[in-house]
């Protein structure tokens, strides 16, 4: 069974280090969601669900291993110990960093530089007749704005990945016809009771 990566220590510095944030999300997704078929196949123990049937060799195209249903206990264990904790860990990181992105940033190293550039842009003489591009000014993006944009994108990616993963889990395990959000919320309730 896959081992989910350990959740990093949540600090504003972690969130503003976009490489570190993306690496955690990429590794977490790669460990569980990107390899979901392999993880599900690992739950199938050959020969335990059905003993060998000699007449099965007469079949021309046996049912492929990736379509065999998985024992419900193994599915539940995988969902409760690997899948949902991985999703929850990523949700915690994204929620924390979204909070950092919407908070004031007194430690922004580019704050003074942006203010100087804004002041120069206001003082600049613009004559668009002589230079049609002289009126253009593109202010630098604050690091909280860049982080908010990254979080929005990562949440969209997370939604797509979870939907795909939950669909594949539903093909092999009984997911009760629920969507991934409802299943994750139900898991959160049961984990909160423990």
UniProtKB/TrEMBL annotation:
<dbReference type="Pfam" id="PF09774">
    <property type="entry name" value="MIX23"/>
</dbReference>
<feature type="region of interest" description="Disordered">
    <location>
        <begin position="44"/>
        <end position="66"/>
    </location>
</feature>
<feature type="compositionally biased region" description="Polar residues">
    <location>
        <begin position="44"/>
        <end position="58"/>
    </location>
</feature>
<comment type="similarity">
    <text>Belongs to the MIX23 family.</text>
</comment>
<dbReference type="InterPro" id="IPR019171">
    <property type="entry name" value="MIX23"/>
</dbReference>
<protein>
    <recommendedName>
        <fullName>Caffeine-induced death protein Cid2</fullName>
    </recommendedName>
</protein>
<dbReference type="GO" id="GO:0005758">
    <property type="term" value="C:mitochondrial intermembrane space"/>
</dbReference>
<dbReference type="InterPro" id="IPR016805">
    <property type="entry name" value="MIX23_fungal"/>
</dbReference>
């Amino acid at each position: 069974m896959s081992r989910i990566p350990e959740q990093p220590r949540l600090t504003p510095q972690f969130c503003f280090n976009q490489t570190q944030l993306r690496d955690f999300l990429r590794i977490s997704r790669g460990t569980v969601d990107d390899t979901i078929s392999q993880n599900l196949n690992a739950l199938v123990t050959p020969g335990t669900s059905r003993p060998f049937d000699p007449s099965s060799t007469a079949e021309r195209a046996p049912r492929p291993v990736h379509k065999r249903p998985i024992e419900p206990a193994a599915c539940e264990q995988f969902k409760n110990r690997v899948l949902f904790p991985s999703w929850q860990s990523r949700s915690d990181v994204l929620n924390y960093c979204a909070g950092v992105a919407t908070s004031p940033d007194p430690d922004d190293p580019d704050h003074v530089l942006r203010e100087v550039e804004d002041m120069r842009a206001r003082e600049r003489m613009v004559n668009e007749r002589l230079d049609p591009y002289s009126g253009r000014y593109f202010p630098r993006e604050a690091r909280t704005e860049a982080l908010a944009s990254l979080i929005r994108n990562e949440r969209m990616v997370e939604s797509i990945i979870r939907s795909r993963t939950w669909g594949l889990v539903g093909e092999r395990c009984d997911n009760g016809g629920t969507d991934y959000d409802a299943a994750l919320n139900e898991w959160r309730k049961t984990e909160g009771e423990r």
